[in-house]
Amino acid sequence: MTTSDADVLIIGAGSAGLSAALMLARSRRRVIVLDGGAPRNAVAAHMHGVLGRDGWSPLDLVATGRDEVARYGAIIESQRTVSAARDGELFVVGLADGRTLTARRLLFAGGLRDELPSIPGLAEHWGRGAAHCPYCDGWEVRDRRIAVLASGPASLHQVQLVRQLSAEVTYLTEGTELPEPDLAALVARDIAVETRRVASVVTTDGVLSGLRLHDGAELPVEAIFVRPRAIPADELLHDLGAASEAGPDDHAWITVDATGRTSIPGVWAAGNIVSPFATVPVSAAAGSTAGAAINADLVDDEIRSALERNRA
Ligand SMILES: Cc1cc2nc3c(=O)[nH]c(=O)nc-3n(C[C@H](O)[C@H](O)[C@H](O)COP(=O)(O)OP(=O)(O)OC[C@H]3O[C@@H](n4cnc5c(N)ncnc54)[C@H](O)[C@@H]3O)c2cc1C
C-alpha cells in the first residue's frame, strides 16, 4: 500500500470534524485535523439545544473535543488548507504555510460563513441581540419585543417560530407588500407587520435597544432575528469536481449520501459545509457517521489488498 502522512485528513475542527476524528482515532486510524480556528458560532457566549452541554460556551466544546481526540492519538494543527488534489491512490492537500500532506481519505468539515444583511450596527450584535436560529437563541429572548427581518420565503416560517416564544413580534417586510395569504397568517397570530425599511440598529449601553427606520422613527425591540446568506467553505470540493446541486442562497451545494460520501471516491463532507441548517448536535452526528463510514471504506480497501497479497 502506498505510504501517506495520514489515513484520513479532516479539514475543520468544529463539531463535525472533531466527531469524525473521534470515531477514526478510536479505530486506530492515523488522523490529522487541520483547522482555521473560526467555528461559526464562536461569536456566541453560550450554545443551546445541545443535550448534556446546554449553555456551554461553543469554544469550550471544541477545546474539550480537541483534548478528547488528541487522547487517542489524532494530530490537530491550526492550519488552513488551501488546495486539494488526487495523486494516484492518495490525496495531496496544500497548507497555508506551504507544506503538503498526503492521505488515503479526505473529510471536509469546514462549515460555513454567515453573510449578514448590510444594516449598520447589526454585525456588532451578531450572536447576542441579533440571531438567526430560534432553537438556539429564542428562549433567551422569550416574552421580549422581537423583530424578524424578511429576507426570503424562509423568513415567514422563521417569524412564526419566533411567535411561539413571544407575543410581541414584528415582521419587517423591508418595503415589500406581502401576498394576502402570508399577511393573513401573520395577522391571525397577532404578528405586527412593519413595511418601512430598517436604516440601522440602535444600541443603548452596548445592548440592542431598537431599530431606526428609514423615516427616522424608532421601533423599540430587544432582539432581531435575521436570515444571513450562507457561504459554505466548499471551494476545494468544487476544485476536486464533487457533484453539487442548486440549494439555499442560490449556491451550488455539494451533494452527499446519508454517510456524507461525495461523488468523488474517497472524499466525504459533513456539517454546515453541506447542511446549512445543521445545529451543533446535528453536525456532530453527521461527522460521527462520516467517520464510521470512512473507517469502513478503509477496511474494505484493506480486505481487497489482503486478498490480492494472498493470491500473489
Ligand atoms: C450566532 C450563532 C449561534 C449559534 N448557536 C447555536 C446553538 O446555540 N446551538 C446549536 O446547536 N447551534 C448553534 N449554531 C450553529 C452552529 O454554529 C453550527 O451548527 C456548527 O458550528 C456547525 O459545525 P461544523 O463543524 O459544521 O462547522 P464549524 O463549527 O463552523 O467548524 C468549521 C471549522 O472549519 C474551519 N475551516 C474552514 N475552512 C477551512 C480550511 N480551508 N482549512 C482549515 N480549516 C477550515 C473553520 O475555521 C472552523 O473552525 C449557531 C450559529 C451561529 C452563527
Q: In oligomeric terms, what are we looking at?
A: single chain
The best one-word shape is: elongated
What structural category do the secondary elements indicate?
alpha/beta
> Beta fraction of the residues?
25-35%
Q: What is the CATH class of the largest domain?
A: Alpha Beta
Q: Which percent bin holds the helix content?
A: 25-40%
* First-last Cα distance: 14 Å
Provide the domain count: 2
The CATH architecture of the largest domain comes to 3-Layer(bba) Sandwich
Main sheet characteristics: 7 strands, mixed
The distinct ligands, each listed once, are: flavin-adenine dinucleotide
CATH third-level topology of the largest domain? FAD/NAD(P)-binding domain
Considering the protein shown, what is the CATH homologous superfamily of the largest domain? FAD/NAD(P)-binding domain
Number of strands: 19
Low-confidence stretches: none
**What does the radius of gyration come to?**
22 Å
Please tally the helical runs, counting DSSP H or I stretches of 4 or more residues.
7
Mean pLDDT: 97
* N-to-C order of helices and strands: EHEHEEEEEEHEHEHEEEEEEHEEEH
In words, what does this structure look like?
The chain has 312 residues and is an alpha/beta fold. The protein folds into 2 domains: 6-114 and 229-311, FAD/NAD(P)-binding domain (3-Layer(bba) Sandwich), CATH 3.50.50.60; 118-225, FAD/NAD(P)-binding domain (3-Layer(bba) Sandwich), CATH 3.50.50.60. Helix content is 28%, strand content 28%. Strands 1, 2, 3, 4, 5, 6 and 19 form a 7-stranded mixed sheet that branches. The longest helix has 32 residues, at 280-311. It is elongated and about 80 Å long. The site of flavin-adenine dinucleotide (FAD) has 38 residues, from α1, β2 and α7. Residues 11-17, 34-41, 43-44, 47-50, 80-81, 109-111, 114, 127, 133, 136, 233, 271-272, 278-281, 283 line the site of flavin-adenine dinucleotide.
